[in-house]
Amino acid sequence: MKLIVAVVQDKDSNRLSQALVRENVRATKLASTGGFLKAGNTTFIIGIEDERVDPVLNLIRENCKSRQQMMAPMSSMGGNADSYIPYPVEVQVGGATVFILPVERFEQF
Amino acid sequence: MKLIVAVVQDKDSNRLSQALVRENVRATKLASTGGFLKAGNTTFIIGIEDERVDPVLNLIRENCKSRQQMMAPMSSMGGNADSYIPYPVEVQVGGATVFILPVERFEQF
Amino acid sequence: MKLIVAVVQDKDSNRLSQALVRENVRATKLASTGGFLKAGNTTFIIGIEDERVDPVLNLIRENCKSRQQMMAPMSSMGGNADSYIPYPVEVQVGGATVFILPVERFEQF
Ligand code: NI
Ligand code: NI
Ligand code: NI
């Protein structure tokens, strides 16, 4: 048994939740914010048998992988005219940071 | 030293908190939501000496054990006339999912 | 690789966040409340290489160490005249509870 602790961007959180439910993987979500990331993120904790760790990591990779995305000019900046960029820019979105922890004992009541 | 991570239904969360305080067990509560459970839940993290793990697990079992409960007809469904059940039904409430993690080192500042 | 789980008072949370960013340490913050502490607290989870554990613990100690602080009479009590204390009192503030957990595997997507 392992405890997977996965920090994912809010943007990908719902999609990952749905994928986990579809695959019958029980997850608990904790509201979290990052030190670096401006955007909010969600921390998933998932208790899982050893042999299902890799399939769950694949699910997380597929649904949360860091990727480039075009962002429309209007939404790219905070409204300051000086920092306005009049053309679409490519930004990095998504990404997941995942820790796999050993579990010494597991109980369900 | 172990770190107990316990996911319990909000319904049982206050009762467990009070029981832990009574027994002088320090716990931190994280707001959480479940992947499966519709109801909100709370994640307790409890750092505890090895010899107190079993007593704390007993506290969690006593206060959060999954059990059947009669639910009045009016509150059983979402208001859809088709799904209205005109008699009390027994539903499962409570339950706790508990992971016991090894702690390599513990510091208090 | 280790996972540092640090519970700190909200009072010190921003200062610790800034210190971690300055030192290029990635942290995730979880909103949390304590069983004992009346004040809110924040739980930091920090994944870190083994050799950086001690520097990070030093940062936490420097920014969150438990300490005495004088509290003005007006703010010391809840507004009840009976419990009003007409002189400054020294109260204990801050403090951090820190668990260092072994990490079996770490992935970034
Ligand atoms: Ni195992
Ligand atoms: Ni121990
Ligand atoms: Ni290591």
From TrEMBL, chains A, B, C:
<dbReference type="Pfam" id="PF06153">
    <property type="entry name" value="CdAMP_rec"/>
</dbReference>
<protein>
    <recommendedName>
        <fullName>Transcriptional regulator</fullName>
    </recommendedName>
</protein>
<dbReference type="InterPro" id="IPR011322">
    <property type="entry name" value="N-reg_PII-like_a/b"/>
</dbReference>
<dbReference type="InterPro" id="IPR015867">
    <property type="entry name" value="N-reg_PII/ATP_PRibTrfase_C"/>
</dbReference>
<dbReference type="InterPro" id="IPR010375">
    <property type="entry name" value="CdAMP_rec"/>
</dbReference>
